[in-house]
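pls ignore typos typing on phone
magnesium ion + seq
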Amino acid sequence: EIICIRAFMEDLMEEFKFELEERNIKFDYHNKMAGDCELFIDRKRINQAFKNIIGNAVKYGVDKELMINITLKRKDNVIVIDVEDNGPGIPADKLPYIFNRFYRIDSERTKDLMSTGLGLAIAKELVQAHGGTLSVSSIEQEGTCFSIKLPIMENNRNERGLE
Ligand code: ATP
Ligand code: MG
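k done
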């Protein structure tokens, strides 16, 4: 399916905003991109990737007043969507493993939660199936940021390259 990224994100963010604000989580979406562009995606699968990533922010960010900030940017021929939370963060030595299947940090802390450790492995596969990448950066006690990068469709690439 061919989508226009602005409208796609606005719709998706509207859904999450509603769900999260009902749970008293602060949620912000910012579009920092000029213009618009087309992406070829499977809507359901990309939605699922977001669900897994945002779901984690909610699940692990229980101790303080949680904020989730999402930004849309364009960098050359890719769309970059950052999902940032102010949750507990992930220790640097654990960070390389979080996309592995069944990997969970500190399963003691979260043993009461129904989790398999598959969410991020699946999210990464879904993004990669679109020719994109999923990466993470995190600082303990401060928060975590997941970056979803998705390629812009070829015929869109030159039009707005100078913006
Ligand atoms: P599942 O998603 O299958 O229910 P899970 O959430 O444990 O289980 P992943 O989503 O793959 O599995 O996440 C792996 C681990 O990375 C989690 O167990 C958690 O420790 C850590 N993690 C993921 N996202 C965050 C986040 N936003 N903040 C802090 N820790 C996180
Ligand atoms: Mg998860």
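The chain has a mean pLDDT of 92. Residues 52, 55-56, 119 surround magnesium ion (ligand 2) (CB under 6 Å). more later
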